[in-house]
Amino acid sequence: VEGVSVTDPPPPEDSAPVGGSKSETLPSLKLKLLSAVSGLNRGLAASEEDLQKADAAAKEIEAAGGPVDLSVDIDKLQGRWKLIYSSAFSSRTLGGSRPGPPTGRLLPITLGQVFQRIDVLSRDFDNIVELELGAPWPLPPAEVTATLAHKFELIGSAKIKINFEKTTVKTTGNLAQLPPLEIPRLPDSLRPPSNTRSGEFEVTYLDSDMRITQGDRGELRVFVIA
């Protein structure tokens, strides 16, 4: 019986993840979520049924993982995270559930990869978006990377508030030699009511390679470490 602890009782029979079988473990639940969101183009191609499947799979992981305590696990936020799914993108705008340009044919904008870069020491929180901007023929499309720089703070055991600082746009591809351009921030008197400088979201699951968050408008987002 060496290696078997007599001080730790076996888990109760009803401790299985909500909606899952008792034999399902976190790795299998994470695989189920990844399978549910694969092929959805980060949520841009998601139907109502797809949204429900992703939400159910995320809830199983959250139940199995238990409460998140960022006061203890803040270091797990560190790094560059790749967005693989956002329920807000099903609205077909780059802003998700917030106002933003459409991703259809009205504007020649193609959304590329989306990342979040988090530094827990400096409290830097950057949203990085790769975009392809259409141009009149015969000019090739312009590839740009927009970095929306924020500072973040913890406002609860699992909730984060981000405060916007600046936006920097850098051309890539054929125009990579051009210097980055910092977009001036509009004065408060000229900013539309929906254009706020801050936002909040709750981290509902966090480990070394996956992060699940719920936005302040109910957006479900799934990230993997990049």
TrEMBL record:
**Signal peptide span per the entry?**
none
Question: Transit peptide: present as a keyword of the record?
Answer: yes
* Span of domain Plastid lipid-associated protein/fibrillin conserved: 29-223
Q: Where in the cell is it found?
A: Plastid
Give the keywords, sorted: Plastid, Transit peptide
Disordered: annotated span: 1-24
> What's the main place this protein lives?
plastid
Q: Which Pfam families match?
A: PAP_fibrillin
This protein's GO CC annotations: plastid
The record's family statement is: Belongs to the PAP/fibrillin family.
Query: Would you tell me the protein name for this molecule?
Result: Plastid lipid-associated protein/fibrillin conserved domain-containing protein
